[in-house]
Specification:
5 domains; 35 strands; alpha+beta; Elongation Factor Tu (Ef-tu), domain 3; 9-stranded mixed β-sheet; BirA Bifunctional Protein, domain 2
Amino acid sequence: MKQLTSGQIRQMFLDFFQEKGHKIEPSASLVPKDDPTLLWINSGVATMKKYFDGSVAPENPRMTSSQKSIRTNDIENVGKTARHQTLFEMLGNFSVGDYFKKEVIPWAFELLTSPKWFGWDKNKLYITYYPDDKITKELWEKAGVAPDHLIPAEDNFWDIGQGPSGPDSEVFYDRGEKYDDLAPDDPENYPGGENERYLEVWNIVFSQFNHTENGTYEPLPRKNIDTGMGLERVVSIFQDAPTNFETDLFLPIIKKTETFSDQKKYGANGEDDVAFKVIADHIRTITFAISDGALPSNEGRGYVIRRLLRRATVNGHQLGINDAFLYKLVPVVGKIMHSHYPQVLEQSDYIAKIVKSEEDRFNATLNDGIKLLNDLIETTKKANKKDISGKDAFKLYDTYGFPLELTEEYAHDRGIDVNETEFDNEMEKQRNRARNARGTKGSMKVQRDLLLDIDTPSEYVGYDELTVEKATLKDIIFNEKLVGDITASAKKAELIFDKTPFYAEMGGQVADIGKIYNQNGELVAEVEDVQHAPNGQNLHTVKIIGNLKKDDQYKLVVNREFHAGVERNHTATHLLDQSLRNVLGGHTQQAGSLVKPDYLRFDFNHFGSVTKEDLKKVEEMVNEQIFAAKPVETIVTDKESGKKMGAIALFDDKYGDKVRVVKAGDFSVEFCGGDHVKNTSQLGLFKIISETGVGAGIRRIEAVTAKPAFDYFDDEERMLNSISKTVKSPSNDETPGRVKELQEQIKKLESKQESLEAKLASQEASDMFENPVKINGTSIITGHLKNANMNQLRELSDTWRDKHASNVLVLGTGNDGKANLLVAIDEEHVKKGLKAGDLIKAIAKDIQGGGGGRPNLAQAGGKNPAGIDDALKNAKEWLAQSK
């Protein structure tokens, strides 16, 4: 067996398929783009959906990648089994309508067995195939696999519902008898069974059918290949590791964790080993997720990060690590993965800062979780129950990060069990909520074969001209058919011209709108939308007004006012992007944008809120660039030259051989295929109108430029004029001072009113304090005050204590549809077992509210002031029954 590192293995796989004519695709962000069906990218093929369903035609139909992926559906098994992980890399090769079985199977065998490549013994390979797929079986035999190493399996058919599907073939590696953990006659002791000896390393899917909406399987117009090879598994074979965790992908993390532990070593104790593995796995996932722009929160992806971090922290406590430590593992992860993911190490300081903040916050609550668990155990024992409820155990798991096994361990030490069935039910409810949150829009589609077949050249010329006098109409699409001509009765159609000034929506910039005329100057269509067809053409969705005919020439006219507004706001997003980096730090990344003629929206990653001061700095910085009248130039070059110029690239954008670099003076340099002004002065003015959080670690700025910015200030001035008039200010300049004067007057009046109300309340209460009522030897004072609030009730309770007026005090007040109750009990009777919290809960229902508090003082609020007298009456009855 060759001695190879994980980096060498990954590169060898990519190099092999590059030699077979494949384009190496970079690993996409873990945060899916334009796919609401996925919380995370969870496989190599997840990033290829658009190619397989025909939405986009790839530049090269042969592609290969090592795609980082996250799956957390069976997180409870991480550390307990040899191969469960939340983050993994999927090596894959893909063919979109190009090669098929007769090419991919010999290639697979070559990669696995050739001395130039993996060099595995072919006798160690076992292959499963779909029983009806005789061609696959024959091709494996022809490649060199022994017939008795080929195993039919009914479940070797890949199908995720509507869309591409087909049979698949799985490759297993025989690790030898030393890994055989089953008896020879065990029914699972075979390649494909649940055992450690035969390790599945590769799945090759022959995507040849369309699973249609009505449940039938129709042959695909273009057959595809989709394969997935788990890098961690392959590395464990090369490095002869019992599990994935003893490879160079995990061991450095585990060894570093040992240095933080209290004399705990990996391999010395099975329970400790689980904790080491959980920490190593989870910190990899946390690091990569944050690197790709996700941040801890209480929902969606952010919740997954927070949950993983808490599980890792709890496992750290099991190893005797009581202080924040996970953040120190971030650079270790970065160094391990540096050869393929250099950005992780580059961002390690930023990632570590976020991780430490989360650790510190959770460590502060962890003791609360342990206290809650101890209280649950004591309560369960006092009630003579045998187990803690599954709901309570799930709360510990969900809120405090306690794994079920940890709760069970604590409980078992005290002779208590945990209701696992209830816990599982709560867990399933949570999973269903997560599934429902993802939705189904954007899932794999049935191929739109018509557009895939259209390869008509279509040039965008809108960078230089917004009117094309003569554009040839090359294709007319109506009702999913190519037609030669069309009339107004059709109402809607899709058109492709040989050239067009209309921008197709992309990169956040909306599509142009405008009109189409025939050569006689007659209006024949209105352009409502423009999108890119799978092969890159500009596909115009139009409202048909007159007659159009294929191969005729037409005049295309973009709406100039609309286009100019889009240009201004697109350039503004570039200035805003750079300003945010300058003010908030280089970690900020664009997370989305929308550029329309009347406003712009810009989403960006940032941990925490943006202060008003920072927002003001950003706004001023953008306006400085506008007022400086800096030239905006576009340079067409290659990607590497663009990077040397300092151009910012978005992680999920694909760039061809030629790229456009947009420079705004010496301030901003970005890759961009959109439209821009010629000079920053054309923006006129920039104004941020809102800044909000829209998701886990995602902030959104909405802003306007030019006339919409002027209109915004005009509206603000009108509002200020109205306020000045209302407060009777001589001028707008003096309005703030006048408002301040009025605020001070109001404050003085409120203080005087509160003082008067307190005196009235005190007068009302004076007679009450002189007339306590005795019930079974305990004195009680009750009173309904007409002129009081909760603060005054608390002050009266202090006076009551000073005077020792009675043993129990119950006061109520109500106004404006709100009711308040207060209960106070002296220390002597608290010691005898009377509790203010019990009494307040008993009477709060009379005011349609609830409350609680300490044994000697409790309060309640409600929405039924009319029930106060009943509450006071029931307080006396409660006291009578408490003896």
